[in-house]
Amino acid sequence: MLWLLLCLLPPVSYGRIVAQNNAHTERHNHEATGGTTTRPHIYFCRSPNMEDFTCWWHPLSNLTDGEEVTHILTYSKEKEAKLECPDYVTGGPNSCHFDSSHTSIWMVYCLTVTAITTHRNYTSKQHCLDVAEIVQTETPVNLTYNLTDVGGDEMGHNALISWTYPVPAHVQYGWITLVYELQYRRITEPDNWKVKYPLREPQVELLGLPVDDYVVRVRCRAQHSKLWSDWSATLVMSIPPRQSAGKLLVLILVTGVGVVALLVITFSIVLQSKRIKEYFLPPIPKPRIIGIDPLLLKKGNLDEINRHFSNFHSYRPPSYSEEVWDHVSTDDIYLTTPKHSSDAHNPSESERDTLIVPCNPAPLEVSTRHQLTALNPNSYMQNVPPYCSLPNKAFTPPLSIPSPWPMPEIVSLPRTDYSMMEHPSLSNTIPTPDLTFSTSPSPQDFYTCVQLLNESGEVHLVPCLPPPYCREFPPLPRANLDTAEKEEKKKTTNHQTRKNDGGNSEKSEAAVPLLPVAVDNSG
Amino acid sequence: MLIFVFTFIQRGVWGLLLWPYILTVSMPLDCKEEPGSLTRCPSISQEKLLDRVIHHAELIYRVSEESCSLFEEMFIPLPLRLQSNQAGFACITKTLPIPSSKSEIEQMSDKWLLHSVLMLVQSWIEPLVYLQTTLDHYDHAPEMLVNKTKWVSEKLVSLEQGVVALIKKMLDEGTFTTTYNEQGLFQYDTLPDMLESVMRDYTLLSCFKKDAHKMETFLKLLKCRQADKYNCA
């Protein structure tokens, strides 16, 4: 039997003690055993800060109608005399409040409540307490949460939950040390509370919360006491879904910045392209004549140029016609001679055509000319400008050259409006100067012109004449010739550059426009 | 008859087995003061008393240290700040027969430890009250300093009660509340010079800080001796 009772010990221990105490007080008060409402009963005492405390009791309920009853609480501290409650008001009805001057943590308080009615007094059972043991702290307030990582990660969000203790004076100076407990659960799981305990700070960070809505609550207690405070007001915390837009935004920002940077660099390169090109490919310096502004020549204002050049002895201003420079190389000659040799002695339309055709500075020919000029600077021929009154402009078919010369022709330049009557007579005078000058060395000597081309393909080269100042005979002093040649070079290059479309002006400048005077008929 | 015996045995068993429950939970306890009653009012155990007293002493020392440094920062110019052994004004408790060297303290008995603590506490209650009033006269004493001083003086009174209760418990001696609360330790005369009175207050605070530390040390030594008599330093 006793063993059975021992086994039942834990569940019924409290009930049994109450029953025992009731049995004790019954003997003293001559009351029948019954419920606790037949006499007052101190049911709860609490101290929020270990400096004062309050006790509440249940009043006498078994009253007959119209009966008045007053309750008196008496207490004693260990063995001292009984004293009455100092304050019935502060704690509300049926309460007794002990302020700090009446509170001592060094002694046990024993309290009793007596209900005084007209008939008799009902005394409650004694309630003893140790003030430090009944400390029940205030409930934490201001429960808030903050999501600490906005972007979120694979595990979900982190949340920093914080709260405050409502009466900081209780915990200042370390008088009471608080311990917190936090519980949270998903809204959808009503019983699955997760616990965070013990917490010393009024905040905690929950890591890796999956996306969901949560309910959070917190409570606290004094470290040396066992009584927990009430649960705080619950906080509903919702973890939002992962913001992938955040990462997208980052990506967009990065690409935008990169594109802008690229654009800036590109623009700077484009604007500075000339300088960059000069740095990597330094330009070849152009030949200059001291005293003459190359820009002047480039601009081609003939009045000014004439003015500048007029102090040269044998300078004649050129006519305002476009010169047709027909660069012919030996290859060209080779190519064309078979064609024209058959027609050498038949000055026909075809010859004229052939004569005229090379005057046409077709772009292809120009380019080939220039190329070949570069290759064979010594073997090109040029058309005689019409003002030279040389009948033929083309020396391409050297065999055909002599024949058309004596004939006056009306030559029209394909690209200009000029047509001229060519006098062959004058042309015959040309070779002589050529011959006279062939012996004298001139700066142009390194340029040779094809005098005639044999049928077998031999090329007779003669030094080229100075520039075609063909109105006068060129028994000019050599120095003058040189300068004249130079000036003519400049002029003709100027003309040539004017004439030639597009580039390759440098090459034409380098090339010396000379008048080939290979007019021998001797073929 | 059998039922009576059975209930008696049952009560005894319950009493024996459930005695810890009665002690640890704030259940209604029997506390009869009528003579002839078998039961006595339970009182707070000695260990708990000692723990609470030490808790008091620790807090008092910490807060007095903070108050002293606050006062020093606010009111004392640098060259006048007291080092540990300087004495413009002597500590008021110099006259008390309280040992200060480590060897002397180790040789003190528990009884003397407790009595020394009580002497110190009782001799400091009045000066702290005085200090509270003088701080109100300062022009711009920070509120924190005033609050701290007030708190310390309140807790010192509480500490005195605790030490008395502890002495009663440990040494089974009667109450003697005002044995050491003698006059002559502290004079109230107001000094005319502002700097002089400030220096006196500063001396008060720093002496109290030292004595609070002494109290804490004594009590901790006492606690240590409770646990292990021969291994305490």
From TrEMBL, chain A:
Basic and acidic residues biased stretches: 498-509
Signal peptide (residue range): 1-15
Primary site of residence: membrane
Chain intervals for the UniProt region annotation (Disordered): 480-523
Pfam families according to UniProt: EpoR_lig-bind (PF09067)
Topological type in the membrane: Single-pass type I membrane protein
Transmembrane segments: 248-271
Alphabetically ordered keywords of this record: Disulfide bond, Glycoprotein, Membrane, Receptor, Signal, Transmembrane, Transmembrane helix
GO molecular function annotation: cytokine receptor activity
Compartment annotation: Membrane
Entry GO terms, CC: external side of plasma membrane
Domain Fibronectin type-III: 139-242
Listed name of the protein: Fibronectin type-III domain-containing protein
Organism taxonomic ancestry: Eukaryota, Metazoa, Chordata, Craniata, Vertebrata
Protein encoded by which gene: PRLR
From TrEMBL, chain B:
Keyword check for Signal: yes
A cellular component term, taken from the record's GO annotations: extracellular space
GO MF annotation, one: growth hormone activity
Subcellular location: Secreted
Alphabetized PROSITE patterns for the sequence: SOMATOTROPIN_1, SOMATOTROPIN_2
GO BP: any one term: growth hormone receptor signaling pathway
Keyword entries, A-Z: Disulfide bond, Glycoprotein, Hormone, Secreted, Signal
Primary location class: secreted
Record family assignment: Belongs to the somatotropin/prolactin family.
Name of protein: Somatolactin alpha
